[in-house]
Amino acid sequence: MELSLDTVADNYPPPLDAHLIDCLQVISVMSMWTRVRPAYAANMWNEALNMRLGTKDLDLHGILAETESRGITFDQLLTIPEQDEWVYRDHVPYSDGKSTTCVAFILAMYKAAGVFGPLANSIQVTEFTIRDAYMLKIFENNTTRLPKWCNNDEDKLPFCQILGEYRMELPYYNTSEPDSIMNENCPSLPPTYERPTRC
Q1: DSSP assignment string, the chain
Q2: Distances (CA, A) of 172 to 12, 137, 139, 156
Q3: Could you tell me if 174 and 139 are in contact, meaning their C-beta atoms sit under 8 angstroms apart?
Q4: Of the candidates 84, 77, 82, which has an alpha carbon nearest to the alpha carbon of residue 62?
């Protein structure tokens, strides 16, 4: 799903209010797209919202009715974390099966390889951003063990940058111990997108 939020109020840019965005913008745009491009709407959000509700084949208006009948708000529905085991339909006009981002794919391989140890079942890699991935404290910590070609005398990076004209800066690289329910409830506001230390 294109729209995924961790908190009800602390992910929207100021001066926008979560309830204003929820009622006037998100639902309005989703409703418009549902009418104009129903297959697009099914692929972009209906399936993901149905997964969060544990329902099947509800359109946006059915999802809104179900949300109201359960006594939860639409923005609360949006904050339900994506689960790694969710697989979306594999027939037209719906999604084409298991979908993932590049970072979730890499972290799923780490997870399958046992990098997260006993925490593996409680970590949802679909909740990770690229920053979350490189912050994980799972990488080589001893820079003397890195190959000599990784760094020249001027660039003493704590990691190997294989290609690129510009030196990458990865703030907080290799600093966050993996834990359960990692990155599932992390507020982040512009312009700095600072997050609590638990995130």
Answers
A1: -----SSSSTTSPTT--HHHIIIIIIHHHHHHHHHH-HHHHIIIIIHHHHHHHT--S--HHHHHHHHHHTT--HHHHHTSPP-TT-----STTS--S----HHHHHHHHHHHTTTTGGGGGG--GGG--HHHHHHBTTS---GGGS-GGG--SS---SS---S-SS----TTTT-B---TTTTSS----TTT----TT-
A2: 24, 10, 12, 15
A3: yes
A4: 77
Separation in Å, CA 141 to CA 114, 174, 175: 19, 8, 10
Q: How confident is the model at residue 126 (pLDDT cuts 50, 70, 90)?
A: confident
* Greatest extent of the chain over all pairs of C-alpha atoms, in Å: 63
- 142-174: pLDDT as tens digits: 988 888 888 777 777 888 888 888 888 898 899
Tokens of 110: 């780490």
Angle at 27 between CA 65 and CA 44, to 5 degrees: 95
Percent of the chain exceeding pLDDT 90 equals 25
For the segment 43-52, what is each residue's pLDDT rounded down to a tens digit?
A: 778 888 999 9
